[in-house]
Amino acid sequence: MKFGRVLALGIALSALSAASGVAQTVGSDEPYTGPNGPYLRAEGGWSHENDMKGQGATGLNFGSKEDDGFMAGGAAGWKFGQLRAELGLDFSNHDVSSIQVNGDGGLGSRLHVGSLTGANTGGTGTVHIIDGMVNTYWDFRTGTPFVPYIGVGVGMAHVSLDNFAVAGHPLANSSDTVFAYQPMVGVRYHITDALALGVEYRYFATVDPTFKDSTGVKFTGRVESHNVLANLSFFFGAPPASPIAAQPAVAPAPAPAAPVQINPSAGPAPEQSFLIYFDTGRASLTSQGRRVADDAVAAFKRSNASHITIAGYADTVGGARLNEALSRRRAETVRDYLVAHGVPLSEMAVNWHGETNLAVATGDNVAQRQNRRVEIDIP
Q1: Between the chain's N and C termini, which has fewer beta carbons within 10 Å?
Q2: Which one, of 69, 50, 68, 56, lies nearest residue 101 by Cα?
Q3: pTM, full prediction
């Protein structure tokens, strides 16, 4: 196995190990990467195969160049949070453009055509590969519908040299099934909660397969390719259901409310409400959102409250399931900010409502800032 291929596989495995280590410090309630459960993916795209090298014990030595070809296939898998595992099946095809024979190992004399050495014109044939792989991926959280990922796959590949010939003379028509591997990197975009488009780079390689030349003498080859694939994924798992709030939901306020100053001698403190708004499709806090969250933290500490309610919402842009997940990420972003600034997690009730309970009634696919909000209520 060539050093470059071992290095590429090692980098992919190291990256996955590092990501798994990070997972030990990241809670399962971080920004969303799509619904857990089963999924299907269809894929296809451009494939460039590195020059094929043939080497036989009897002295056969040739190199072939292949035209750019294609790879197509799909996979069925299961998503567990940021981790995905799947079974994939792909097919690739590359036509031969030329063959250079550096030493025919007696093949020419066995074919009764003299020597094939030096022949470099009229190279014909096709390299076909069918591979079945077990792939593992790690999805990175961004707080947006874009989900970058890395992965690695191992499995078996059936490699066929179909009708290899040089200068009109048969060279090989043979196949072998060998171990294969593929490090991968890509990104997908969730159009809806259940549907995502993606693009992926994949380096595919095998251990050296063994073929037979046209007279039955064995030789080994080298198979490796670079692939850029577009894919379409269908996720069948549903996003988590919204938890039951610990207390009745508070009617949304039409505008941000300033913290209420508390006078200890004035009896029970009134309920305080804070509104944090978000950009379209985003779950990250803006500078203004952080200031409102800071006000909520200060009010909570001043009031000596024993309970705080956080509720996330979305506008109607996008699908209902995607908006439910988005409202969850917003609520959890605020929760994490409050915890980081001294509000006990045990004092919080966190819930999310997607595009229901709109502060401003709109039709479908309407961007409305007042609907992209998180409400913080301190009794």
Answers
A1: N
A2: 56
A3: 0.62
